[in-house]
Amino acid sequence: MATDLEASRLMIYRAADSLDRADPQASMHSAMAKRYATDLGFKVCNEALQLHGGYGYLKDYGLEKLVRDLRVHQILEGTNEIMRVVISRKVLGGNRG
Amino acid sequence: MHFALTEEQQAIQETALAFARERIAPDADKWDETSHFPIDVIRETAALGMAAIYVPEDKGGTGLSRLDGALIMEARATGCPAISAYISIHNMVAWMISKAGTPEQIERWMPKLASMEWLASYCLTEPGAGSDAAALQTRAEKSGDHYILNGTKQFISGAGATDFYFVFARTGDASPNGVSAFAIEKGAPGLSFGANERKMGWNAQPTAQVIMENVKVRRPISSVASRGRASASPCPVSTAGASTSAPARSAPPGRLSTRPKPTSSSAAHSASTSASSRPCSSRSPTWRPTSKPPAS
């Protein structure tokens, strides 16, 4: 879980840095980071809930809120399926589009 | 290639973490349960320079980088992801205005956005145009010296509670190039909102439809369009929204006139200065609980 979180963080920072440097790959890096970090962010929170057993399912421990809040990140700002479309266009078509 | 934050970035991160810990986290569960949008707390972030984070200083923003922005949004999300996400949307709109707005539009709107006197909503998605954003149906028809907007936007964060709506509408053909951006202020005749959606999460911010019925707008947010090429798309309209465009890093000469002019670029300097209302900038990234009086 910690490794997933760290990998997600690195991809986000990398994408942000690409935007700052106007890197031609910035949109691909952004799409990859969005796809990866939102998928892994949700997974880590869901696993954290599991780790807490029945208590993770209660509102008192904050885990279920994170799972509910993070689920939508896989959908909004371009679903993660659309991120894959953006990535595949870049990978298969050079730097087009 | 660097994998370490600068001292400045660490200070920015600590500021945002402290804000999340002191001002967001204690009430996050309550806001979630009661579907409360804490506008007062959100507005406090503006005083820290977190409302127009990566808008250049000469355009009225804080002038930080996207990476700084990512650090801030990540740190704020430790308090509540839904609150941090809404503020990131506000920041995105402020940035788009700074990129696509005319100097007059930037001058008129940026002070209100950077101070969060106005909160912003980003209106791209429609009931029938989500993943295929370029298929949007909202129309903006030229009528004399202004435009008339008609259409419905779906899943709009902040809708009904925010003051400034950044709307994509079709001014030209059916391609992505036929789309322009417009700004509508709350209270505009013909602007209305759907019911607050009942959601699985993100309950600390409202989500609703934005409905436009003959809303009159003077001109698009685009210096290109204002010169007569109304069909040009002033902003990237991709299925990934604004997140895929790549702005050039700027080296702004000025700062917001409402902010103190820094005298030192040393991050350590800020530790010795007063700070409850200091903006999050490259020089003065500190935050103190509001209950504490400023050191000065």
SSE topology string of chain A: HHHH
- Biggest sheet record of chain A: none
What oligomeric state do these chains adopt? heterodimer
The low-confidence parts of chain A are: none
Biggest interface: A-B, 38 and 33 residues
Residue share in β-strands of chain B? 15-25%
Biggest sheet, spatial arrangement of strands of chain B: 2-3-7-6
User: Which of globular, elongated, flat, extended, rod-shaped describes the shape of chain A?
Assistant: elongated
- Largest sheet features of chain B: 4 strands, antiparallel
Rg of chain A, nearest Å: 16 Å
Number of strands of chain A: 0
What level of helicity do the residues of chain B show? 25-40%
Number of strands of chain B: 7
Helix run count of chain A: 4
What is the CA-based Rg of chain B, rounded? 19 Å
Regions with little confidence, pLDDT below 50 for 5+ residues of chain B: 223-296
- How far apart the termini of chain B lie comes to 40 Å
| Gross geometry of chain B | globular
Order of helices and strands of chain B: HHHHHEEEEEEEHH
Distance between the termini of chain A: 34 Å
Q: If you had to describe this structure to a student in words, what would you say it looks like?
A:
The complex is a heterodimer of chains A (97) and B (296). With 97 residues, chain A is an all-alpha fold. Chain A has helices at 2-20, 26-51, 63-71, 80-92. Chain A starts with a helix and ends in a 5-residue tail after the last helix. In chain A, 34% of the residues are buried. The longest helix of chain B is centred in the N-terminal third of the chain and has 28 residues, at 7-34. In chain B, a hairpin with a 2-residue loop joins strand 2 (139-143) and strand 3 (146-157). In chain B, 51% of the residues are buried. In chain B, the strands form two sheets. Chain B has a four-stranded antiparallel β-sheet, with no helix packed on it. In chain B, strands 1-4-5 form a three-stranded mixed β-sheet, with helices on one face. Chain B is α+β, with helices and mostly antiparallel strands. The chains are: A mainly alpha (97), B alpha+beta (296). The A-B interface holds A 9-10, 12-13, 16-24, 26-27, 30-31, 34, 59, 62, 65-73, 76-79, 81-83, 85-86 and B 3, 28-29, 32-33, 65-67, 69-70, 74, 80-82, 85, 130-131, 155, 199-202, 238-241, 243-249.
